[in-house]
Amino acid sequence: MGGQSRGALFDSDDIVPVLIEGVLRLVWWVVRTVVALVVFAVRVPLLAVPAAVLVAVGVTYGRPVALWTTLALVVTLIAWRLLGPGTFGRWVRPQLSAAWKTVAYEVAWRRIAPRVGLVVHDHGPRRRRAGEVAGLAWVKVTPAGVERLGIGLPAGLTPDDVAAKTDAIAHAFRAREARIAPSGPGGVVIELHRKDVLATTIRPLPVQAADRVNLAGIPIGRHEDGSPWCFSLWQTHVLIAGATGAGKGSILWSLLNGLSPAINDGWVQVWAIDPKGGMELRPGARLFSRFEDGTPETMCDLLEDLVAVMDARAKRLATQGIRKHQPSPDSPHVLAVIDELATLTAFAERSVVRRIEQALGLLLTKGRAVGITVLAAVQDPGKDVVGWRDLFPTRVAMRLDNPIQVDMVLGEGARDVGATADHICETTPGVAFVRVEGTRAVRRVRASYLADDDIAALASRVTAWPALTAPRPAPVPAGPFDAPAPPRAEPPTAPETPAPARSEDQRPPASAAPQRKPRKPRKARTTSTPTAGVEKSATDRGVT
Ligand SMILES: Nc1ncnc2c1ncn2[C@@H]1O[C@H](COP(=O)(O)OP(=O)(O)OP(=O)(O)O)[C@@H](O)[C@H]1O
C-alpha cells in the first residue's frame, strides 16, 4: 500500500526511486544554497568579500592566521570609527548596517509581507495553492539612517497597494514612519524612518554676495536623508499651506536668503504683500522692490502694476520672437510674495476683491512664461484658496489639521504614500511635505530658520533695485452691485525722489542668461517701496 506522501516525487516504496528522489532533492538544495550565497555576496559585498577572504586565508595558512586577520580587521574598523567618525559614518556604517539588516529583513519580510496583505492569489482555472508574496529585492541604509527596502511586485500588486499598507508595515518593523519612494516599473521602495532626523532647528545656510543663484534650485533646508532641500522658483507658482505657527515664514525667509545675491545684483525682484499689517515681512522691506502692508486697495494696486509689467513683457517677448523669458537686470525675474492669501481679500470692498481676483488670476495663468512667480501662503487650503489651488504647480504642505487638507494641497493620494502633514508635531515648525518632481512620491523636509537677528543682517546687506514700471491697463468697470471704490489711499511715506522709470517696454532686450555682471555705476536712486520709507542710493548698498 504505497499512498503518495505530500510532496513525494515517486509513488513507490522501492528503494531505487526513493534513492533517486533523495539525490535529486540534495542536488536541488545545493543549487539553491549556492544561488542564495551568490545573491547574498552580490547584495552585501562588504560582508561577503571579507568572509570569503578569511575562509581562503584559513584554508591556505591555517586557522590561527585567519583569526589574527579577523582581529586586525576589527581593530582597523574601531580605529577608523574613533579617528574619522565623519568618513566612517558616510562610507562604512551604512554598508555595515545594510549588511546585517539585509539578513534580518530577509527573515522578517517573509513573515510580515503576507500578514499585511502584500500577496496575490491566482483566480484562474490553474490556481496555485499558495499566493505569491511581494519579494524583498534589496536593503540599503542611507548615511542619515533611513532604511530603504526595494520590493519586487508580483503581477497583480501595484505601488498603491503597498502605499495603502505603509502604516501596518511601519508598525510591524517598529519604525516611526514608513513612506513610499519612486522606483522603476514592477517595483516599489519602502522607506523606514526610525528617528526624526529633522527634529532640530536648521541654521540658515551661509550665503555670500558672490554666490551664483540658481532659480531652479535654491537651497533652503534639508531633506530627511540629510541632502539639501533645493527649491525651484523657475517657471512655477508656489502655494505654502500650514496651520498657524507651522513655520510658513521660515520657507519664505530661507528663500529670500538664498535669493539675496540675485536681488542685490538686480536680476531678481521681490514684490511683497503682507496683508497682516507687516507683522511678518516688514523687517525685510529693504529686500523688496515693492512692498505693501497697508489697505487692500494699495495691495490691489501692486498686483495690477505687476499685471501691467507682465503684459508689457509678454508683448516685448512676442515681438522679439522669444518664447521663454531669461532674467537679467534689465528684465528681472519677479517673485510676488503674498503672505496669507485669505486675508488679502477678507476685509476688502467687493469691487476691490474683484480687482484682486482678476489680477491674481492673470498673474497665475500668464506669469510663468514671462518670468513672474507668485508665492502665496495660506493657513486653510480648503476655504481660503479652493479656487486658486490648481494654478499653483508647486505646493508645500506644512503642519495641517486633517488628512483631507493634505490631499487638497499635495494632490489625491499624497496622504496614502506617506505625506502625514496632519501628524507633524507643533514642536517642529518648518517641517513640511513636498512632492518629488515628476512622481507621486513625497518627501519630508525642514526649512532653515532665520531668527530676527538673521533677518536684520540679511536686510542690512542687501538692497532691492527699483521696481519695474509699465502703463496700467484700464480698470475693470464696477458692476451694478459693487460698492463705490473708496479713493485710492496715498502711500503713508511716499519717497521724495521718484523712482527712475525702468519701464519694461523701453528697456533693451534681456541678456541670454542670468549672469553676474560687474556692477555698473548706478545713479542715486530711491526704491519704490513706499512703506520702506528709506531713500537708498547705490552707495547705501551694503554688499560688494
Ligand atoms: N524652520 C523653523 N525652525 C525652527 N523654528 C521655527 C521654524 N519656523 C518657524 N519657527 C518657529 O515657529 C514660530 C512660528 O513660525 P511662523 O510665524 O513662521 O509660522 P506661520 O506658519 O507663518 O504662522 P502664521 O500663519 O500664524 O503667521 C516662529 O516664531 C519660530 O519661533
TrEMBL record:
The record places domain FtsK at 226-407
> Bias category Basic residues: which stretches?
516-525
Question: Which residue stretches belong to region Disordered?
Answer: 473-544
Q: Which InterPro entries match?
A: FtsK/SpoIIIE/SftA (IPR050206), FtsK_dom (IPR002543), P-loop_NTPase (IPR027417)
Q: Where is the composition biased (Pro residues)?
A: 473-498
Recorded hits in PROSITE patterns, A to Z, give:
FTSK
Q: What is this protein called?
A: DNA segregation ATPase FtsK/SpoIIIE, S-DNA-T family
Annotated SUPFAM superfamilies: P-loop containing nucleoside triphosphate hydrolases (SSF52540)
Q: Which UniProt keywords apply?
A: ATP-binding, Membrane, Nucleotide-binding, Transmembrane, Transmembrane helix
Q: Which GO terms describe its molecular function?
A: ATP binding; DNA binding
Where exactly are the transmembrane stretches of this chain?
A: 34-59, 65-83
**Amino-acid positions noted as binding ATP in the UniProt annotation, renumbered to this chain:** 242-249
